[in-house]
């Protein structure tokens, strides 16, 4: 292991028994074992967090769009069976095309968008 043989291990245990006493030695070993266990849990959780695949912004946007479209589709599928006088409120027909798509949080500028901004700024200055 660390170059420690049986005689060295026995010597370490005897010194520990003399220094800490027979009452404290099991308690120290128990707390040392708990500390080692917690350290192993923390390192495994850390390595799992590092190795977990990251979700790209495109995937995040797609999942957000799916989540916003599902309630809209469910509302469009539910239509009243018959209209009675007590039901004065009518629901408008909602389709996924009528609901505007959410704007992305950040769009990287493209060459075309930069050119348009420069042209707009030149028009404003002129």
Automatic annotation (TrEMBL):
Its main location: membrane. The chain crosses the membrane at residues 6-25. One of its GO terms (biological process) is protein transport by the Tat complex. The keyword Transmembrane applies. Keywords: Cell membrane, Membrane, Protein transport, Translocation, Transmembrane, Transmembrane helix, Transport. It is found in: Cell membrane. GO terms for cellular component: TAT protein transport complex. InterPro entries: TatA/B/E, TatA/E. Residues 81-93, 110-119 have a biased composition (Polar residues). The keyword Cell membrane applies. GO terms for molecular function: protein transmembrane transporter activity. Part of the twin-arginine translocation (Tat) system that transports large folded proteins containing a characteristic twin-arginine motif in their signal peptide across membranes. TatA could form the protein-conducting channel of the Tat system. NCBIfam families: PRK14861.1 (NF011430), tatAE (TIGR01411). Belongs to the TatA/E family. Forms a complex with TatC. This is Sec-independent protein translocase protein TatA.
């Amino acid at each position: 292991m660390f170059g420690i043989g049986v005689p060295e291990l026995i010597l370490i245990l005897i010194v520990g028994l003399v220094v800490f006493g027979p009452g404290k030695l099991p308690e120290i070993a128990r707390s040392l074992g708990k500390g080692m266990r917690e350290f192993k849990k923390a390192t495994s959780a850390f390595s799992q967090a590092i190795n977990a695949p990251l979700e790209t912004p495109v995937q995040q946007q797609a999942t957000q769009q799916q989540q916003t479209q599902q309630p809209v589709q469910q509302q469009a599928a539910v239509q009243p069976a018959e209209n009675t006088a007590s039901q004065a409120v009518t629901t408008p027909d909602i389709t996924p095309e009528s609901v505007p798509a959410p704007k992305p949080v950040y769009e990287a500028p493209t060459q075309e968008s930069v050119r348009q901004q420069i042209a707009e700024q030149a028009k404003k200055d002129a």
